[in-house]
Design goal:
Layout: H1 2-16, H2 64-75, H3 79-88, H4 94-97, E1 104-106, E2 112-116, H5 121-126, H6 133-143, E3 154-157, H7 171-188, E4 192-196, H8 198-205, H9 211-214, E5 218-224, E6 227-234, H10 237-242, H11 247-263
Parallel strand pairs: 2-3, 2-4, 4-6
Antiparallel strand pairs: 1-3, 5-6
Length: 264
């Protein structure tokens, strides 16, 4: 109350002096009120994302190695130049741990091309795909339906380099080399593809189904914007060695392939 009386007295004095403009809120010498903290600015609300559009974090830029692989693959005009491009591609550490590049085997231009996932120890040593025990089993199976890699089929893998310890290739590794295998298929010119094992099948066909659901069916594999090739997914011969009871399913797949070849 004393402060109010002092304020009134000071105000009356200033009016008597003819003051008509205040220089500060309170007369000098009187306690000044504590400044109120300014309210914090309201947090900006995130923009409303239309229903059905992916979140921003889901759209990731293509790594430089992936762009280089796509450019090298697109520039290859024949199989020798594609092989040279793959040998010179340094975008994957697999190149540093493998013995040599494993490109392909068989007859380019054959009606059917087989695609596996990656070389094993024997393939890494010899530089050719499917030459180990599982490859020998595959050769015997295909011979029973009239196919021979020295005469009428072609074979390769998605990865040209052996993963250390024969481990399963990662999704990132498969995606990195997809431009090369797509270009490889386009240059080899098969009418039909056979995808050996779930890793190769999911890489080229897409989707999340396992090989037991994908096998025994024809799928479309897009090689380029204007080229789609029918592909039969089947069990990898290495799996058949571990699971002999599955050979019956693989035999049915071989018969499906033979029937499709006979139709044309």
């Amino acid at each position: 109350m004393e402060i109010d009386s002092a304020l009134l007295a000071a105000l009356k004095l200033q009016m008597d002096w003819g003051a008509d403009e205040a220089l500060q809120a309170l007369p000098a010498g009187l306690p000044q009120p504590k400044a109120r903290p300014e309210p914090a600015p309201a947090a900006e609300k995130p923009p409303v994302r239309p229903v059905g559009t992916p979140p921003v974090e889901a759209v990731r830029p293509i790594p430089a190695a992936g762009m280089e692989a796509a450019a090298l693959a697109a520039a290859a005009q024949d199989l020798p130049s594609l092989r040279a491009a793959m040998e010179g591609f340094a975008g994957s550490p697999l190149r540093d741990t493998a013995t040599q590049l494993v490109f392909a085997d068989g007859v380019p231009g054959s009606r059917v091309m087989f695609v596996g996932e990656a070389p094993g120890a024997d393939e890494d040593r010899l530089g050719r795909p499917f030459v180990g025990v599982s490859g020998q089993l595959l050769d015997r199976m295909l011979a029973s339906i009239g196919l021979n890699r020295g005469e009428n089929f072609y074979i390769s893998n998605i990865l040209p380099w052996r993963p250390p310890g024969n481990r399963t290739p990662t999704d990132a590794e498969m995606q990195l080399f997809l431009p090369f295998i797509r270009r490889h298929i386009a240059l080899a010119g098969p009418d039909l593809l056979v995808l050996l094992g779930g890793t190769a099948a999911k890489a080229l066909v897409g989707g999340k189904e396992g090989i037991t659901r994908m096998r025994g069916k024809w799928h479309d594999v897009r090689i380029s914007n204007d080229q789609v090739i029918p592909a039969l997914a089947t069990l990898h011969p290495a799996y058949l060695l571990r699971t002999p009871t599955a050979k019956k399913d693989a035999w049915h797949d071989c018969l499906m392939l033979r029937r499709r070849m006979n139709e044309a």
